[in-house]
Amino acid sequence: MSAIAERVKQIIVEKLGVEESEVTPEANFQNDLGADSLDTVELIMEFEKEFNLSIPDDQAENIGTVGQAVAYLEENVK
Amino acid sequence: MSFKRVVITGMGALTPVGNDVPTFWSNLVAGVSGAAPITRFDAEKFRTRFACEVKGLDVTNYIPRQEARKMDPFTQYAVIAADEAMKDAGFDADTLDLDKAGVIWGSGIGGLKTFEEEVMNYSENGRTPRFNPFFIPKMIVDSASGVLSIRYGFRGPNFITVSACASATNALIDAFNYIKLGLMNVCISGGSEAAVTIAGVGGFNALKALSERNDSPETASRPYDKDRDGFVLGEGGAAIILEELEHAKARGAKIYAEMIGAGMSSDAYHITAPHPEGLGAFIVMKNAVENAGIKPEDIDYINTHGTSTPIGDPQEIKAIEKFFGEHAYDLNISSTKSMTGHLLGGAGAIEAAACIMAIKDQVVPPTINHFTDDPEINPRLKLTFNKAEKRRVNVALSNTFGFGGHNASVVFKKYED
User: Is residue B165 annotated as part of the catalytic site, yes or no?
Assistant: First the structure.
């Protein structure tokens, strides 16, 4: 697992109060990890803070799963 | 339509002198101070560097972390106190009519820490407007009653009363009246506050409202003492379960006391200073006693607002002497703020709990930290200085007064069938 993926997992565990084992690439924040729409907005903000970047709203809308978040960050984090 | 009777069937407390009702009450009777240096933030540069904080609290022992972080501390305090009160009341989840169960809570300020953190975050990050999506629902003052209704499924009346330091008393009054009118059977009432924050301490310091006795925090809250120099900020809250009498009897509930009356008034005088002759204080006690259908002589104990400010304390005393006449010297008076500090919007809740426990145990908690008599305060008054007093407590009155000139008082009586 990449360093980015590991940090993403920790943020999700911390914010959503889920077990590490639940945070699989396919896991959807809302359907699988018990997040509501506000939790998802907060997660995006945490990613922005942690990785020091800004995720535009139209991009954020496409981040619904753990894997999508990791992929976006791996591509955009310098 | 005949009015219903209202009794107290459960209590919970989270206070600077104890994180549950038994600890809170035994420390009040023992005269323990809850004041200590501020730990919530670095107060080194503040004029006041101490407060009455809730101690030894790990919120996650009560609320799962991912839920707790969506609540401001004042809501966390509400949940912790309400959990204790609900357990104490022992409702049967299968038979309780949730549509007739309400939550009427009190808080003077609401999510001050949440507001502070979000705004500071904004100013520290190049003023980029990135606010947490939970900012508003955490901060707004009604979130406490909303969270409690979700937690217990109570679908009846639900709101927060805001009248500064009288807030929780107003909550109790509304809960009392709605049950009396038959609009609900059960209500979680009370109040909480969490204002030991940068803006809370800084703001009250700017008003010169707080004691600045930094070399002796535990003796700083000294209502009626000649050398009092302001109030000590407190935090926490209490939950009180009000229940319609027949509903309580039908389920064989333990009854602490009966709530028999309430009064409200306004000073109509000044936004922060109390009326110098205690006019609003006089009117509120008169209204409460009349509403309770008793005589002034029936009151055995008054838990005063008594915040330990130079101008606040004497006006309430003047009002007591004027309203009660000779009986003012027979009843016992105390300010438990000498121990708990001033919980602002939560004060009325913990002080109602103190009145109810005084009736239950027939003992008046003390006004601690009395060192020097104030020539302005009549020495004939029984202010219960420094030591609790065993005595008959059949009826107790709790006074609370808030910035804005709001006054609210409640009357509790030993329950008799």
Answer: yes
Please tell us whether the domain made up of B262-410 is placed in CATH 3.40.190.10. no
Is A16 close to B134, i.e. CB distance below 8 A? no
pLDDT tens-digit readout, B286-299:
999 999 999 999 99
- Decide if B65 touches A, using CB distance below 8 A: yes
CB B186 within 8 A of CB B241: yes
B133 touching A (Cβ < 8 Å): yes
The answer to whether B289 and B320 have CB atoms below 8 angstroms apart is no
Strand partners, B243: B7, B186
A30-36: long-range contacts at Cβ-Cβ below 8 A with a sequence spacing of 24 or more? A30/A64
Nearest to B133 among A17, A42, A48 (CB): A42
DSSP-based three-state secondary structure for B366: coil
pLDDT at B125: 75
Q: What are φ and ψ of residue B316, in 5° steps? A: -70, -40
pLDDT tens sequence across A19-49: 999 999 999 999 999 999 889 999 999 999 8
The minimum CA-CA distance between B134 and chain A, rounded to whole Å, is: 7
Q: Average pLDDT per run of 10 along chain B, which is 417 residues long?
A: 95 98 98 98 98 97 92 98 98 95 98 96 82 94 98 98 98 98 98 98 97 98 98 98 98 98 96 92 98 98 98 96 98 98 98 98 98 96 98 98 96 96
β-strand partners of B410:
B262, B398
Domain ranges of chain B: 7-251, 262-410
Residue B314, CA atoms < 13 Å, CB-side half-sphere: 15
Domain count, chain A: 1
Task: Report the topology of domain B7-251.
Answer: Peroxisomal Thiolase; Chain A, domain 1 (3.40.47)
3-state DSSP assignment of residue B50: strand
Work out the number of other CB atoms within 10 angstroms of the CB of residue A34: 13
Instruction: Please tell me the pTM assigned to this model.
Output: 0.94
Q: Which residue is closest to B125 within chain A, CA to CA?
A: A49
What is the band of A57 on the pLDDT scale with cuts at 50, 70, 90? confident
Q: Strand pairing of B158-161 and B50-51?
A: unpaired
Residue A55: give its domain's CATH number. 1.10.1200.10
Domain range for A44 is: 1-74
Q: Say if residues B409 and B283 touch (Cβ distance below 8 Å).
A: no
